[in-house]
Amino acid sequence: MERAREQTSAGELTGPAQRPEAAETALELLVHGVGGTTPEEMLDDPRTVRISGDDVAAVHRRREDADAERRPDDYRGRPVPEAYVWCNLTSGNGTRALWLLLLPFMVVNLAHWMRPAGRGRRRTVRLYGLLVRLTGLTLTVLLVAAACEVALDLAAWQCAGTRACAEEHSWPAFLSPELSHDGWWSRPGRRLALACVVPTALTCLLWYLSHRTWSAYESQLPVSRAAEPEEETDPTALGRPGFWYGRRLVARLRAAHTAAGLLTVTAAVGGPAASFDSEAAGPVLLGFLGRSLYTVLAAGAVVVLWVVCRRGRSEHRLDRELDARLVRALPVGATLLLVLTLLYAGWSRPGWRSTGRLPGDAAFGGIALGQGLLVVALGVVASVLYRGLPGGGAAVRTEDTPADTRTAMRGLAGPAVAMLACALGGVMSGGVAQRVADWLDGTQGSLPGPPVLLTWQASVIPLTLLVLLGLCGRLALRTWRLRARETRAVERDYRGEPKDRARTRRIAGTRAMAALTDRAPLAVGTFSFVTLLLGSGALVGALTTGDTPARAARGSYAFVHGAAETAQSLGSWLIGLGFILLVASGRRAYKDPAARRTIGILWDVGTFWPRAAHPFAPPCYAERAVPDLTWRMVTWTRTTGGRIVLSGHSQGSVLAAAAAWQLRPSVRRRVALLTYGSPLERLYGRWFPAHFGPAALVSLHREVDCWRNLYRLTDPIGGPVRLPGDCGPQVDRAPLEDPLVYGRTLENPLPAPILGHSEYQADPAFAEERERLLARLRHDVPGPRPDGDAQGSSGRSSA
Hints:
By secondary structure, this protein is mainly alpha-helical. It contains 26 helices and 9 strands. The strands form 2 sheets. It has a 7-stranded mixed β-sheet with strand order 4-5-6-3-7-8-9, sandwiched between helices. The protein is globular.
């Protein structure tokens, strides 16, 4: 196909405008969903060619349609089908299962986008984003502190300093003062300096993954557009020029989080040496260096907090500038401080012996307390935004803005998810520490073990699981009752068919299971509240007793002591088992297609959003996919002057809507939208109301040429768009029958399958709605001016 335009470094288009002979051509752009597929399946043809893109994401056509623009007469009355395949952005080899180690970072990033709509309350919205970014920073510190606990405290300090542990494991023999006969590495400070390689390598790995994935996935420039005024009156921010290009913020946060991780390692290495120097009558120089270390660490922490607290994303313009000095200075400065601290800690200190455990209780307690306070503050801010209380601007709702009554958890979804992110971070850090401590000590009991708080947190895991089982039981009971009601509904829907009790129950059960998606807010809210409550109890127990639950309960009744011991032992195993299952589930998700479809739903929702709160979260595939789709639609309309049917299934419908919002109004009016199995309202509208709320979806319906949505009652993901007033019937078709045929007929002698979320194209209603959209677009629409919509004589056009 002839290339009509060339991309410049500014993300603009240059070259000739449309070819008049192709102005009557229509394009059907297909976008697949979560599970991924092949272009051959999407286009229903074994012979396809890639016309644009690369091995990661590309646009494909049938071979016979490759030069359709040169033969417009052959396509009068029918569209040119194209398939945009983006599954390689999220699927891959089994090594991507390691991304599940970044799950807490992804979850806290989700909390940033779950805020309620806050039009006109700019300061409150910024405060919400600031609190989420600070929560994300605590997760980075927690993860690095856990690595320090394992490597520095458990291995280098406790095990190497205990003869029994060093004899049991051969590798720490050269670190043991007794086994190595006071060798050079046996000094406590030098042991800590050597062990800090592990958390330092972890921090560097997180930095590398964030930088590499940005270059591979998120560095695509959107189509250039003029900057917009910074107002919060837009129905959605998804249409702003800089929404899908957050390079500056990610780079700034990456520098701050990397520096925070290195400062955490510095404190873990230098803190014990500085404490010894302040208590012992050692050289004056070492005491001065210790005090200077604390001062510089405090100053570094203040700088990191200042960088994180600076203004967040710049969405109103395409921000291609970087804070180059800041991005380089922060990690480099933290690295230099770490190197100097290693030299300071490695200085010979006669009489310094490693006894007990390192002072990690205060560190982990401070992190847990800070996370709890941040989550509570986030809940207060979210409530202010949701209820429309005075917060620096006008009221949220007007007569022209539909009321948002289906927001998940009354606007508290963000704080609840942030709490889950903190809980996941605690489970992962505590699980690793508990497992390593059990492995090093075995049944000897010669090591003090991990910090008391981690043991208390592990002890409340069984209670948390009991609550989770109770929630599952309640949902199962509700599903059983709903299945009974759906059984009667199925009998009404297939009235006149010969009754088959097993068939009816199977259809009703599928509908009832699909309805569980709508109960997710109750489960998430309850579980988050219980997690906050039990986590607070664990923190109070650790601070007040200063000992493990089993030891603290020794003087109590026998059954209390027994229950404490059981909870402590069981929680220790469960927290380690949960960490192992998390990694195993992630690897299975990338090897087993069925598991990929199940786990991939939540994973693809999480990685859809840009990294606005945590730079170490998994990469955002939409920052590649949405510009791809936007570029394709802009260049098509610019080159041919034709019309587009944008057809999206499942997550593809979300990408399609996001791409449509990125278009200029003149181009958006040439687009017809067909969505099926779409979570636009059912998941995104409820959980992300500020971006996919009723006002945003209504504006999309009014600005595209037309929009039709298909769904089934057996679909656990897709659902109606539920636009208010007269807009609803214009978009949503009545639920499709599933199965298409209840019993055996002459045309269908075998039982028809229950399709649920898949194969919407197999329903005759799909072809009917597709034809209606195409017929609506066949009327004459004037093409864009050759010199662009709003660029005058400059010869340039933008989306």
